[in-house]
Design a protein that fits this description.
Strand order of the largest sheet: 2-1-4-3
Radius of gyration: 20 Å
Structural class: alpha+beta
Helix content: 40-55%
Oligomer: single chain
Order of helices and strands: HHHHHHEEHEEHEHHEHH
Distance between the termini: 40 Å
Largest sheet: 4 strands, antiparallel
Number of helices: 12
């Protein structure tokens, strides 16, 4: 992981997409005030990747080819599920180990205002976050574990009213990418209240013990920070992630395998 992210950071080191001097001075990781970001944001509203990048170049491809051993991954006994969104149907497609390729990873991270659609077997795909972020179904149906630990990178709840165009866009991004997860957790909560006594798929959903690792630092960041590839920013996220995981383990290590620690009714209420 360090090799991958350091390569991403190195590739972006001389990019004109950098934080403004004022943001650097005040320790703000957002790129929203960067003139280059503002130009790119405006261009994305006027032009598509088919206009600006007709060749479909994606710098992520070379980095993934260098870091990921796809042959080993395809044969790995550790299950990995990668979701992409079928552009034509809007439905999620979950790729499993034998089918995971470079194109699958590029499809799962294809933001349509930045990259051209990725086609796999003639089917066009966009980022999997639009339809399953993450897709919990395979974890319930195809895995023997009864505990799932979510690592939250998009805040579900953010206090305050977004008022600027930038704040509104950032919050819309969070809501849209969280919607599929919240719906699945809401369904899980409903099933848990009226769980069938016999073993079936519904009971598998109802008995899944959910846990959550999250950090309040995410509330300090907006969606433009996801385009910030500075190494200091990467290592800050890494350190905050380790800190959040440590807090979770200190508090709930003994709960794994015994009881859920995520309150589904509070996290994803049915109706409010």
């Amino acid at each position: 992981l360090e090799r991958f992210w350091s390569a991403v950071s190195e590739a972006a080191r001389f990019s004109p997409l950098q934080r403004s001097p004022m943001d650097v001075l005040f320790g703000n990781w957002s790129l929203g005030n960067s003139p280059m970001y503002q130009w790119l944001d405006m261009s994305a509203k006027l032009f598509s990747p088919y206009d600006l990048n007709p060749a479909g170049d994606n710098p992520l491809a070379a980095l993934l080819e260098d870091v990921v051993d796809f042959e080993l991954l395809n044969k790995s006994p550790t299950k990995l599920f990668i979701t992409a969104t079928n552009v034509e149907t809007g439905q999620a497609r979950v790729f499993r180990n034998p089918d995971i390729s470079l194109d699958v990873l590029l499809a799962s991270a294809c933001l349509p205002n930045i990259y051209k659609t990725v086609e796999i077997d003639g089917v066009p795909y966009w980022d999997g976050g639009y339809s399953g972020n993450p897709s919990l179904g395979p974890l319930v149906r195809e895995c023997s574990a009864n505990d799932t630990v979510l690592v939250q990178i998009n805040p579900v709840k953010r206090p305050g009213i977004p008022k600027t165009s930038h704040e509104i866009s950032s919050r819309l991004n969070e809501i849209s990418f969280n919607s599929s997860l919240v719906k699945e957790l809401r369904m899980m909560s409903v099933i848990r209240k009226d769980m069938p006594p016999h073993q079936c798929e519904a009971s598998s959903w109802g008995t899944m013990r959910m846990h959550l690792i999250a950090s309040d630092v995410m509330l300090e960041l907006d969606h433009t920070s996801k385009m910030n590839a500075e190494w200091d920013f990467m290592t800050m996220l890494r350190d905050k992630g380790r800190e959040a995981a440590g807090v979770f383990l200190e508090k709930h290590r003994g709960d794994i395998g015994k009881t859920p620690t995520l309150d589904l009714e509070q996290f994803a209420p049915d109706y409010v």
